[in-house]
From TrEMBL:
One of the protein's GO biological processes: methylation
PANTHER family: METHYLTRANSFERASE, METHYLTRANSFERASE DOMAIN-CONTAINING PROTEIN
Provenance organism: Actinomycetospora aeridis
A family per Pfam: Methyltransf_11
Coiled-coil stretches noted in the UniProt entry, renumbered to this chain: none
Name of the protein: Methyltransferase domain-containing protein
Keyword presence, Transferase: yes
Keywords on record: Methyltransferase, Transferase
Length: 285
């Protein structure tokens, strides 16, 4: 799906830690960061593939787990008409309120409910498709959330999970040793499960799912998102003592200079995993 790369307003540094701090979820910085991620063309390709591989279309009932303020949820709500339905669930009351505002403004009927991915408030076999995008990496019990996605999806229905692998983070700061230190600190601290994608095929197969398909994209950051993100992670590494203060300043200066010169490059690997849910009698635990 071709997507226009629109210019972004300058914004303060972002930290992925804050997506787990749901009291701050509705802050403008994080809303803007999620919108900027959502615009990245290579991530859009994975979203489009998720739609295709889960056969999301008219008449389907789709559940978006960890829906945030509904960026993809609202698009799916259009796709399932006529006859379908979309439900979005998120732990953040603020994000659910914002998603409801956006759905109302767009004239879309979407069931948006606050709740926990690890204990979904829905019956077994309730939906045709359950999806989660950039959610499992933040959870203390991603295995429970995965089992819940499967439980609420009817036999023959599909699930889709889109998550990054933090050890694939890439940036063109020339000092390779400094890059290794900063990116290792980021991978080890930014989220709870930085390398979770590597186990998804095995986990889904153990749960009895079939047709497990994996697709990946190196998602290239837009220049403005790259400077926000990569400048911030150097500061975080210095604050935590993973690198010294001088190296932290050198990192930030380098990232900002590369951005000013139009040469900053950053990317991270994202994976889409889709699978088919078997009858309850064939499900694992
Ligand atoms: C990076 S955002 C992704 C939002 C959305 N899926 C998107 O791609 O725009 C992570 C989301 O997971 C939500 N979240 C974190 N822990 C959760 C949990 N235990 N149950 C449900 N949602 C959760 C956060 O509130 C946040 O909206």
């Amino acid at each position: 799906m071709p997507v226009q790369d629109t210019p972004e307003p300058a914004a303060p540094a972002i930290s992925l830690h804050d997506f787990t701090d749901i009291d701050h979820s509705a802050e403008a910085t994080y809303v803007a960061a999620l919108e900027a991620f959502d615009r990245l063309p290579l991530l859009r390709e994975l979203k489009a593939l998720a739609i295709e591989r889960t056969r999301t279309g008219p008449g389907r009932h789709v559940l978006d787990v960890g829906c945030g303020f509904g960026l993809e949820t609202l698009r799916l709500a259009r796709l399932v008409q006529p006859g379908g339905a979309v439900t979005g669930i998120d732990l953040s009351d603020d994000f659910i309120a914002e998603a409801r505002r956006r759905a109302a403004a767009a004239g879309l009927e979407v069931d948006l409910v606050p709740g926990n991915a690890e204990a979904l408030p829905f019956p077994d076999d309730a939906v045709d498709v359950a999806r989660a995008e950039r959610v499992l990496i933040y959870l203390d019990a991603p295995d429970k959330a995965l089992a819940e996605l499967v439980r609420v999806t009817r036999p023959g229905g599909r699930i889709a999970v889109i998550e990054p692998d933090f050890d694939t983070n890439t940036v063109n700061v020339p000092d390779a040793g400094l890059v290794r230190a900063v990116l290792a600190h980021e991978a080890d601290t930014a989220v709870v499960n930085p390398r979770l994608v590597r186990d998804l095929r095995g986990d889904l197969t153990a749960l009895g799912l079939t047709d497990v398909l994996i697709e990946s994209r190196m998602v290239v950051f837009s220049p403005d998102l790259a400077v926000q993100y990569f400048a911030g992670i150097g500061t975080a590494a210095a604050t935590a003592g993973a690198i010294d203060a001088a190296a932290g300043r050198r990192w930030t200066d380098t990232v900002e200079a590369l951005h000013r010169e139009g040469r900053l490059f950053g990317a991270i690997g994202y994976y889409l995993v889709t699978a088919t849910v078997p009858p309850a009698s064939s499900r694992g635990s």
